[in-house]
Design goal:
The chain contains 34 helices and 22 strands. With 818 residues, it is α/β, with parallel strands linked by helices. Pfam families: Phosphorylase.
Length: 818
């Protein structure tokens, strides 16, 4: 783990040890002689939390005194991972804690592993939100994160006979020592019911509306302090837990209805039970919408209360509050803020709309149509009737204003409407977020350009100044200092301790060392150490022995067709067949490492996981391969596992279909740690190639423009492509014919035939280019001086991809808080 800049004094170590022992005794109620590892973890966590609190309160008081504008970051996901190392490192207490425990014969490395990995997110979007919270604290921006305190979060992935099985994630089984429950901070959230129009209160006044909701759910706040680097500031992550308005009906219980007496509580608590409940059923869709509105409504009530307490009026809201919507999940905030301003606070409609647009901003994370949320009008009218009225009225004013501008093109008006009429009437949440925000940003230069050209092309033509780009970033504190202490120590030794405070600029000073053979050797040595650690994890979890000196080829991310794990698997099969055909060939030993979760209802993604495991079993058991190729699928990919995989990667697979990945952030994490990227010109790969240099990456395949051109022309013939490549054809046939599924030879027939008849994600189209890019990888690997020179330059040139830079851009250009 990362060392403190200055060794702690004996008095500092002793003071922290006494705090830990006091927490163990008086907060946990355990004798040191009988304490479990988890007891010790909790004691250290509570001792660490104490060190945050003074700073937390001081910074909060200071922001109130100075009248600082606050940022409110609304996200359905916060993939924060384990917090012990993060917090100790940022407070400069890591070595203090280690020595404090060592003095009483407690193994710090062992107890830190007992901390559960909070599964409050699915992937990049949730991890980005966590990085942003840490960066806002580091930069001293007064901010609140708002989300849901999921009881179970995303499912725990188990692999049984190669198939994904979803199990309950139990991160809260032993409580959460980082959080503070705030039972006094609670809000009643309504669902269903009807709306009553009230008479106008005077001449020139607008009619008021009263929402008689039929069901009330209470939102209870839980606060987690998020500390910035060197304790620069501490901000609040406020997560909401759902409770019934009345938890228990004693009369019904005494009448014998024991289940009915608690049914309302169970229905309410289901809202904060699980992240992303399967939405393949109507009940699942309703629960998803209930989750989104629940946390948005609680968060807006909370921030408006805070604003009113300090300012006394909502008419200056945009001057002192900026609300950032992280994707379309919180988009209902546009209608909810209008309801609170108009119905609850009596502000005139036009003024309320002006305030809403000036306060809201929206980050778009996807170009996939299915990921731009829409909700059926029927469901909205039943669950949120007043919001549906408000959305209709927003839409009417919007379309009327366009007609007043002389815009009468019916197709254009249909495109920019908030209501989709063509396939069942649905509310377009992306359009609502766009219309209700003064700023809309993409998350990479390519993605932002494609937003203007595709999903929001017509809205962009009407509001040409709203879309801007804010390329994603990562926090180097987590993804370099904490994840890779070996590399961090090497960098600090050569660049100085100042690197830890200014990696954005100082990493560039590493470039000359890429030309030094001794430094390259040490860079390779720290990688080997990380690979040996990962090899032990693979052995322990899977019973598979891998060679740390082999090329570690890593593809870890959410399992989705557009991320093209299938393309990697086809290369794996083709490589396997080539090795078997020429066992004496000059093959580069390679370990293919996969990890990632498939959505519970995503059948094709689950089949890809099963295929990965079938291929792994076949190859790993084949003695003719002689260990030249190994394939592993590590289950239950999460932040903690990523922290072990990323520093050990030699090759980073970023091979999404061009034009479909908004940005990616794992690509940045791998490059920061010196892995070389094989990838398409998609998402932030484009900007990475500009910063790092194409010669230090392996770029292949169709561009986003070429992909779109093929789709538009309708001329792409996957069948001809397949027959034009004998190695692709043989790989597909072997999978289709059951070479990897002897127990069920037809298992992959539909999957492979789907590529032949509708290669939507250009897997076959890019196969040959990918194969040849992998040959370039092997050629570079055989030339260690060349490989490690590129590896060092990847680390040296990744400084721009810091989340501090990204947040600084948000703060200056959108939030206006710096």
């Amino acid at each position: 783990m990362t060392q403190q800049l200055h060794a702690p004094t004996a008095d500092e170590v002793e003071a922290f040890r006494e705090t830990i022992l006091a927490k163990l005794t008086y907060s946990i109620g355990k004798d040191p002689e009988h304490a479990s590892d988890h007891d010790w973890f909790e004691a250290v966590a509570l001792a660490t939390r104490d060190r945050m609190i003074d700073q937390w309160m001081d910074r909060t008081r200071e922001s109130y005194r100075q009248g600082k504008k606050r940022v409110y970051y609304l996200s359905l996901e916060f993939l924060i991972g384990r917090l012990l190392i993060d917090s100790l490192s940022n407070l400069g207490l890591l070595e203090t804690a280690r020595q404090a425990l060592a003095g009483i014969n407690v193994d710090f490395e062992r107890i830190r592993l007992t901390e559960p990995d909070a599964a409050l997110g699915n992937g990049g979007l949730g991890r980005l939100a966590a990085c942003f919270m840490e960066s806002m604290a580091t930069l001293g921006i007064a901010a609140h994160g708002y989300g849901i305190r999921y009881d179970h979060g995303l499912f725990r992935q188990a692999i049984v006979d190669g198939w994904q099985h979803e199990q309950t994630e139990t991160w809260l089984n032993f409580g959460n020592p980082w959080e503070f429950e705030r039972p006094e901070v609670s809000y009643l959230i309504g669902f269903g019911g009807s709306v009553m129009a009230l008479p106008a209160e005077g001449p020139g006044k607008e009619p008021r509306h009263f929402w008689h909701w039929s069901e009330g759910v209470r939102a209870i706040a839980y606060d987690t302090p998020i500390v910035g680097w060197r304790g620069a500031s501490v901000n609040t992550l406020r997560l909401w837990r759902a409770r019934a308005e009345a938890d228990f009906h004693l009369e019904r219980f005494n009448a014998g209805d024991h289940v009915g007496a608690v049914s309302e509580g169970a229905r309410a608590e289901s809202i904060s039970r699980v992240l992303y409940p399967a939405d393949s059923t109507e009940a699942g869709q309703e629960l998803r919408l209930r989750q989104e509105y629940f946390f948005v409504a609680a968060s807006l009530q909370d921030l408006l209360r805070r604003h009113m307490d300090q300012r006394g009026t909502l008419l200056n809201l945009p001057e002192f509050a900026s609300i950032q919507l992280n994707d379309t999940h919180p988009a209902i905030a546009v209608a909810e803020l209008m309801r609170l301003l108009v119905d609850v606070n009596g502000i005139a409609w036009n003024k309320a709309w002006e305030l809403t647009v000036a306060t809201m901003s929206y980050t778009n994370h996807t170009l996939l149509p299915e990921a731009l949320e829409t909700w059926s009008v029927g469901l909205m009218e039943r669950l949120l009737p007043r919001h549906m009225q408000i959305i209709y009225l927003i839409n009417a004013h919007h379309l009327d204003a366009l007609r007043e501008r002389g815009i009468h093109n019916l197709e254009l008006l249909r495109s920019v409407s908030l209501i989709e009429e063509s396939n069942g009437r649905r509310v377009r949440m992306g359009n609502l977020a766009f219309l209700g925000s003064h700023s809309i940003n993409g998350v990479s230069a390519l993605h932002t350009g494609l937003m203007r050209e595709t999903v929001f092309t017509d809205l962009h033509s009407l509001f040409p100044n709203r879309i801007s780009n804010k390329t994603n970033g990562i926090t180097f504190r987590r993804w370099l200092y904490q994840s890779n202490p070996q590399l961090t120590a090497l960098l600090v030794e050569h660049l100085g301790e100042e690197l830890l405070d200014d990696p954005e600029n100082m990493l560039r000073q590493l470039e000359p060392y890429a030309e030094q053979a001794q430094f390259r050797a040490r860079f390779a040595a720290q990688r080997l150490e990380n690979k040996q650690l990962l090899a032990r994890i693979i052995q322990e979890q899977l019973g598979i022995e891998v060679d740390p000196s082999a090329l570690f080829d890593v593809h870890v991310k959410r399992i989705h067709e557009y991320k093209r794990q299938l393309l990697n698997l086809l290369h794996t099969v083709a490589l396997y067949q080539a090795i078997r055909s020429d066992p004496g060939g000059n093959w580069v030993p390679r370990v293919k490492i996969f990890a990632g979760k498939a959505a519970a209802s995503y059948h094709t993604a689950k089949m890809i996981i099963k295929l990965t495991n079938d291929i792994a079993r076949t190859i790993n058991d084949d003695p003719t391969v002689r260990g030249l190729l190994k394939v592993v699928f590590l289950p239950n990919y999460n932040v903690s596992l990523a922290e072990r995989i990323i520093p050990a990667a030699d090759l980073s697979e970023q091979i999404s279909t061009a034009g479909l990945e908004a940005s990616g952030t794992s690509n940045m994490k791998f490059a920061l740690n010196g892995a070389l990227t094989i990838g398409t010109l998609d998402g932030a790969n484009v900007e990475m190639s500009e910063q790092i240099g194409l010669e230090h990456m392996f770029i292949f395949g169709l561009t986003a423009q070429e992909v779109e051109a093929r789709k538009q022309a309708g001329e792409y013939n996957a069948e001809a492509t397949i027959f034009g490549s004998s190695r692709l054809n043989e790989a597909l046939l072997s999978i289709r014919d059951g070479a990897f599924s002897a127990d069920d030879p037809a298992r992959y027939t539909a999957l492979i035939d789907g590529l032949k008849w509708q290669d939507t994600f250009m897997v076959c189209a890019d196969f040959e280019a990918y194969w040849h890019a992998q040959l370039e990888v092997e050629a570079r690997w055989r030339d260690p001086n060349n490989w490690w020179r590129s590896a060092v330059l990847n680390t040296a040139r990744t400084g721009w991809f810091s989340s501090d830079r990204t947040i600084r851009e948000y703060a200056e250009d959108i939030w206006k808080v710096l």
